[in-house]
Each structure stands twice: as C-alpha cells, then as structure tokens.
Amino acid sequence: MRHLYPIVTTPDLARCRAFYVEALGARVLFEQDWYLHLSVDGWEIGFLHPSHPRRLPVFAHTALTRGLCLALEVEDVRAAHALMLARGFELLGQLGEHPGGELSFSVMDPAGTVLNVVERRAEGGAEFFG
User: What are the VOC domain coordinates in residue numbering (predicted)?
Assistant: First the structure.
C-alpha cells in the first residue's frame, strides 16, 4: 500500500482549504473546483465537492462525513490550541487531560469533520500505542 487517506465530501472546498492551510500549515498537493488534496506533515486528506458530475455514486451523500473524527497527534497541544483560538476557529469543548495519558481538544472543520487534536504523554497510553 502506498497511501491511505480519507476523502471528505463537502460543498465548501475553499473554507476547508483555508482552515487546513491556516490552522495546520497544510500544503496543497492538488486543487480543482471539484477536488482538493492536502498534505500535513506527510499525512494526506482529500475533499470532494458533492456536485461533481464524475464522482462515484458512493460520494453523493454528504452525510458520509457524519461520525468521522480525525485524530491529529501533535507534539505541543497547548500551542495548537492557542493557534486555533488566535485564528478564531470554534472549539468543541475545552483543552483537557484524559485517562491514558493524553491532553486534547476538538475542533470542527468547515465540512463538519471533527478533529481531535491530541498530545500523548510518555507516562500514559504506552500499552495501547506502543
């Protein structure tokens, strides 16, 4: 396998582009009026416009993004949290510590996909994450 990445269906590619580029420093790998493909530190994510005439039928329903949560592991979650606040993005809940040795917060991108931004601590979670 060469790559594995999610493709999120959304009618607002421009807002998703702005969010990921401004908040996460994403690079644009491919961009058309119907599809956007980004890279963040070697990880990739695609965004597909639902009205593109050549899309596969499975992509016809924007509801496919419901229930999708992307975990974004960072080295400094406090810095990521401060950046999101400074850029005016709406956070879902507060920055908090959780069992298993993680500190995290969540934010919703313009397509309605939840990003759980996580910092794993050495003292916890090793049995699960190796």
Answer: 1-120
